[in-house]
Write a structure and sequence with these properties.
This protein is of the alpha/beta class. Helices cover 44% and strands 17% of the residues. Helix 7 packs antiparallel against helix 8 (222-233). Bound molecules: nicotinamide-adenine-dinucleotide and (2S)-2-hydroxybutanedioic acid. It catalyses: (S)-malate + NAD(+) = oxaloacetate + NADH + H(+).
Length: 338
């Protein structure tokens, strides 16, 4: 087994191994970028998920501290930490689900595409590791720009001969979480009662809330639809500006990522009717990837829902979303192919 950290890590690991051998059945989950703004609260939330038996925390910095800290929580999952690229494959071996929030976040004035330069290479390296060490794992990709990084991951897996479109999911849950919250505010109801499908992608106009399909069925004035669509599309920027240079959404994102990962694990367990929006390999439009509702099962995104009926406002939004998405996807594909 890898000897992880210089001080204390081996002791932690040996204890963890003993417990893992006799431990409760469950799924093995890795978080890549686990010491970051999203990674830390996400590690906490996955540690309290009863479906998780083993939790691997990987980052290029600070995992010894995060691992020691989270490992003291008296919940079932055994926690192991991995530091730096030489330990990537050990972090990934045997994993059922890999969640990737690694990479740099936006500062005010930046678009998500401005992160491409740095994050594209990070995602490529991590996905090469997945192809080597856990090619059958479900991958939840959070690193921005999601509209491009999912295409990068797909190309890396294709190159390695391990690509399974059902197992690669770009995480757009935060858009749904925001949409549910903002729509509930307008309707004056509890957000837990609201379900807003959000389709397209995860940046600006590519984020397309389908307000005509909100549950419970609701009608909105043109002004309300415009206000809600803009607020949902710019929710990320709202947080980036409020944080004023200190990063982007981390806490609401960790919540959203934990919610989505939990659904993936329930799907892996074989539960029926697990449905979430996600950015996946898709034939719903002419684009190779598109976010819609998907049914999650033992092999990942087993069924991709169609868009359903759109109103005029949404049809115009869809065209705008598709043209920006096409470019972002192409940029991701070209990064690996060229
Ligand atoms: P952060 O800077 O706080 O944390 C990122 C972590 O990634 C750091 O700990 C860093 O050390 C680590 N990292 C960097 N290179 C790495 C590598 N090669 N391997 C492993 N780990 C590496 O950033 P954050 O706020 O946690 O955001 C992370 C990413 O998530 C950003 O790209 C951000 O834009 C994106 N994000 C996506 C969504 C979404 O809805 N999909 C929402 C919020 C943020
Ligand atoms: C978000 O939607 O909060 C994330 O994509 C981070 C960002 O840059 O806005």
């Amino acid at each position: 087994h890898p000897s992880n950290f210089k001080e204390g890590g081996d002791v932690l690991l040996n204890k963890a191994n003993c417990r893992a051998k006799g431990g409760a059945p469950g799924f093995k989950v890795a978080i890549l970028g686990a010491a970051g703004g999203i990674g830390q609260p996400l590690a906490l939330l996955m540690k309290i998920n009863p479906l998780v038996s083993v939790l691997h925390l990987y980052d290029v910095v600070n995992t010894p501290g995060v691992t020691a800290d989270v490992s003291h929580m008296d919940t079932g999952a055994v926690v192991r930490g991995f530091l730096g690229q030489p330990q990537l494959d050990n972090a990934l071996t045997g994993m059922d689900l890999v969640i990737i929030p690694a990479g740099v976040p936006r500062k005010p004035g930046m678009t998500r595409d401005d992160l491409f330069k740095i994050n594209a290479g990070i995602v490529r390296t991590l996905c090469e590791g997945i192809a080597r060490a856990c090619p059958n794992a479900i991958v939840n990709l959070i690193s921005n720009p999601v509209n491009s990084t999912v295409a990068i991951a797909a190309e890396v897996f294709k190159k390695a001969g391990t690509y399974d479109p059902k197992r690669l999911l770009g995480v757009t849950t935060l858009d749904v979480v925001r949409a549910n919250t903002f729509v509930a505010e307008v309707l004056g109801v509890d957000p837990r009662e609201v379900d807003v499908p959000v389709v397209g992608g995860h940046a600006g106009v590519t984020i397309l809330p389908l307000l005509s399909q909100v549950k419970p069925p609701s009608s909105f004035t043109a002004e309300e639809a415009e206000y809600l669509t803009n607020r949902i599309q710019n929710g990320g920027t709202e947080v980036v500006e409020a944080k004023a240079g200190a990063g982007s959404a981390t806490l609401s994102m960790a919540y959203a990522a934990a919610k989505f990962a939990n659904s993936c694990l329930h799907g892996l367990k074989g539960e029926a009717g697990v449905v979430e929006c996600a950015f996946v390999d898709s034939q719903v439009t002419e684009l190779p990837f598109f976010a819609t509702k998907v049914r999650l099962g033992r092999s990942g995104a087993e069924e991709i829902h169609q868009l359903g009926p759109l109103n005029e406002y949404e049809r115009i939004g869809l065209e705008k979303a598709k043209s920006e998405l096409a470019e972002s996807i192409k940029k991701g594909v070209d990064f690996i192919k060229k």
